[in-house]
Amino acid sequence: MKKVIVVGGGISGLATAYLLQKKARAAKVDLEVTLLEQERRVGGKIWSIKEEGYLCEWGPNGFLDSKPQTLDLCRDLGAAAHLLRSNDNARKRFIYADGMLHQLPENGPAFLKSKLISWPGKLRLALEPFAGKPPLEVDETLAEFARRRLGDEALRKLIGPMVGKKEEEGDRRRKSGCQCRRTGRHPHLVSRRHSDLDRYSGGKARQ
Ligand SMILES: Cc1cc2nc3c(=O)[nH]c(=O)nc-3n(C[C@H](O)[C@H](O)[C@H](O)COP(=O)(O)OP(=O)(O)OC[C@H]3O[C@@H](n4cnc5c(N)ncnc54)[C@H](O)[C@@H]3O)c2cc1C
Q1: Considering 12, 20, 45, 137, which has the largest number of Cβ atoms within 10 A of its Cβ?
Q2: Spans in the chain with pLDDT lower than 70
Q3: What would the pLDDT profile of 80-100 be if each residue is shown by its tens digit?
Q4: Number of structural domains, the chain?
Q5: Contacts within 8 Å (CB) and 24+ apart, 174-183
């Protein structure tokens, strides 16, 4: 019998353990998978609570359905019927910073008016197309990448809340994986091939 230990019961570990078992069954391989989780619950960043009639998400509240694998996994697990399409009324996002909620600006004029990022922070963001390239052979972390291209304040108030503190500051190996999952490409390559992120995201959206 083959034995595999999966460390971590977040979505990555759970999906890995599930797929290993599924593939082993299909290939008629005798496999024992043990999943180790340091907390008292599995799920990692994914966690919901119900309080006073409200459903609150501690972490993710959705995923993009552009990749079939995620929907396939939901179907396989019998969860497809529970999926809810995002509601256009919920498009407004808020970030808590400096003691208040700020609506996440959705366009240039709203961004200029927003108090989420200070004027020096906004100027730093505007310099993004001129950000230098990372040193050769450096596998930048997500935090280093965002700090170099967007500045400290954008990292703290925009990137941090979206990906979670640990992912933003975790160790290099962990973040490289995290970046690949998120962008589909490594930021190191992105920043070598594209002079600014705006053009990168525009190009990618059209692919
Ligand atoms: C506020 C917030 C909102 C988000 N919104 C979205 C969203 O809408 N859509 C989206 O797709 N993504 C979103 N994300 C990102 C998404 O939640 C994460 O990318 C994803 O949940 C990470 O899963 P993971 O399994 O890789 O890591 P984690 O969820 O961090 O799981 C890792 C697990 O490993 C355990 N562990 C670590 N070390 C050990 C060890 N040595 N031994 C045993 N166990 C260990 C940890 O306790 C944890 O349970 C959001 C994240 C945050 C924080």
Answers
A1: 20
A2: 164-207
A3: 999 988 888 777 889 999 999
A4: 2
A5: 175/141, 175/142, 175/143, 176/139, 176/141, 178/142, 179/142, 179/145
User: The CATH number of the domain where 27 resides is what?
Assistant: 3.50.50.60
Ligand 1 centre to CA of 45 (Å) is 4
Q: What is the pTM of this model?
A: 0.68
pLDDT in tens, 41-60: 999 999 999 999 988 888 88
Q: What is the CATH number of the domain that holds 192?
A: 1.10.3110.10
Query: The domain containing residue 8 runs over which residues?
Result: 2-88
The answer to whether 168 and 155 are in contact (CB under 8 A) is yes
Ligand 1, atom 4: closest residue by C-alpha: 60
**What is the best residue among 14, 45, 93 to mutate for testing ligand 1's pocket, by most ligand atoms within 8 Å of CB?**
45
Regarding whether 97 and 72 lie in a shared domain, the answer is no
Q: Is 91 helix (H, G, I), strand (E, B) or coil?
A: coil
Mean pLDDT over all residues of the chain? Answer: 81
Give distance in angstroms: CA of 120 to centre of ligand 1.
32
In the Cβ-directed half-sphere of 87, how many Cα atoms lie within 13 Å? 4
Which residue puts its alpha carbon closest to atom 25 of ligand 1? 10
